[in-house]
Amino acid sequence: MKLRMPEGALASMRNDPEGFARELCLAAAVKWYEMGRISQGRAAEIAGLSRSEFLASLARYGLSPFQCSAEELEAEAGRD
């Protein structure tokens, strides 16, 4: 896949092409996981990380590894 970037975009981000590609894959994987479109395992694969590394990345993005609302968690906790 090819991606066109404005002249100097990578320099302004202080990143080389390979680093930018890794960062872009991680950002896409995190967003798709947040949207519920892919699983943690698939997101980790897209990002080129282990599942535990991906979970740590979620924390850096300020996201929870859990894909349910507080109400859903409470309902699950109340089930026996």
Give me a quick take on this structure.
The protein has helices at residues 9-12, 17-34, 40-47, 51-60, 70-78. It has 80 residues and is an all-alpha fold.
Question: What order do the helices and strands come in, and which of them pair?
Answer:
Layout: H1 9-12, H2 17-34, H3 40-47, H4 51-60, H5 70-78
Helix pairs in contact: 2-3, 3-4
Structure characteristics:
mainly alpha; elongated; 5 helices; single chain; 80 residues
Write up what this structure looks like.
The chain is mainly alpha-helical and 80 residues long. It has one domain. Helix content is 61%, strand content 0%. It has 5 helices and no strands. Helix 2 packs antiparallel against helix 3 and helix 3 packs across helix 4. The longest helix has 18 residues.
What gap, in angstroms, lies between the N and C termini? 49 Å
Shape: elongated
SSE ordering: HHHHH
- Overall structural class, as computed from helix and strand content, comes to mainly alpha
Number of helices: 5
Chain-averaged pLDDT = 85
Oligomeric category = single chain
Query: Main β-sheet, in a few words?
Result: none
Uncertain spans: none
Strand content: under 5%
Number of strands: 0
